[in-house]
From TrEMBL:
<protein>
    <submittedName>
        <fullName>Tripartite tricarboxylate transporter substrate binding protein</fullName>
    </submittedName>
</protein>
<dbReference type="InterPro" id="IPR042100">
    <property type="entry name" value="Bug_dom1"/>
</dbReference>
<comment type="similarity">
    <text>Belongs to the UPF0065 (bug) family.</text>
</comment>
<feature type="signal peptide">
    <location>
        <begin position="1"/>
        <end position="23"/>
    </location>
</feature>
<dbReference type="Pfam" id="PF03401">
    <property type="entry name" value="TctC"/>
</dbReference>
<dbReference type="InterPro" id="IPR005064">
    <property type="entry name" value="BUG"/>
</dbReference>
<keyword id="KW-0732">Signal</keyword>
Amino acid sequence: MKNFAKATLAVVAMLASAAPSWAFPDRPVQLIVPWAAGGGMDSVMRIFANGLEAELKQPVNVINRTGGGGLTGHTFIATATPDGYTIGGASPEISFYKSLGLGELTPESIDLFSRLSLIPAGITVKADSPYKTVADYLKAVKDGPKGALMASGTGVGGSWHIASGGILKAAGIAPDAVRWVPSNGGAPALQDLVAGGITVFTGSPIEAKAMLDAGRVRTILLMTNERHPSFPNVPSAKEVGLDWTYENWFALAAPKGVPADRRKILFDAAQRTMQREDVRKGMIDRGITPVWDKPGEFDAYVKTFTERGNAVLKDLGLTKG
């Protein structure tokens, strides 16, 4: 009897020690978004979180940690306890903080799982703006003094700032001819646009969809090779003779060092999430392209993306060292 009791206790102890792995996650997971509520990443991550909850069978709480052009949120993800209960969204800005002299944070500082989505850059103006076409806008930039017109969409040196500099350069205009007004994402920048604080928003019209539908703003260009199915009346950069395309990506990430078994649970659940019809439809209906990368594909993409962006940042005079 004593031997049976000892054996039973041994089995119980073994099961108890294994339980944390078997049960993971056994409480809510937090998903950090480095940008303001209502913006492009926030929209993507909330759609994704709803699907991930269904796959993990646990709540996934989206938490916006803004500031520093996304640096605050990205740093929080990188330095979080690597127990699998903190994941987050990474945006292109993490590729450029080091070039901008904002610290040592790079894509290698966090564990990047895969891109979840792509959204194209555009040029959006207030509904009553005198600029009816991109040609009108570019003419005003050329004819006016440097800095007379203002743009926004993210922090200084962020993805939409690069988009702005790139399209100006493609038009034969100095990339810094338009003054950049930093913001904590697309949502606050669009509020500034309709209030008259800036001239153009160079983020994605997907972030501006509610305002577009309400007639408060107009998108006059997409920085794409072809027209976008969600915006069939908006010309692409290629068709107006501008050799510049730009898209923003949003990726799933975690702090480095998450135990392999837990990482696999998160990775597999995320992959299943991106295959869910409700998640894909939720993104596509908003004009967002859902993505799940093959192994190695994301690393190669980020390398090329970073090199291209750094070239524009150099033209803008923003790179350090």
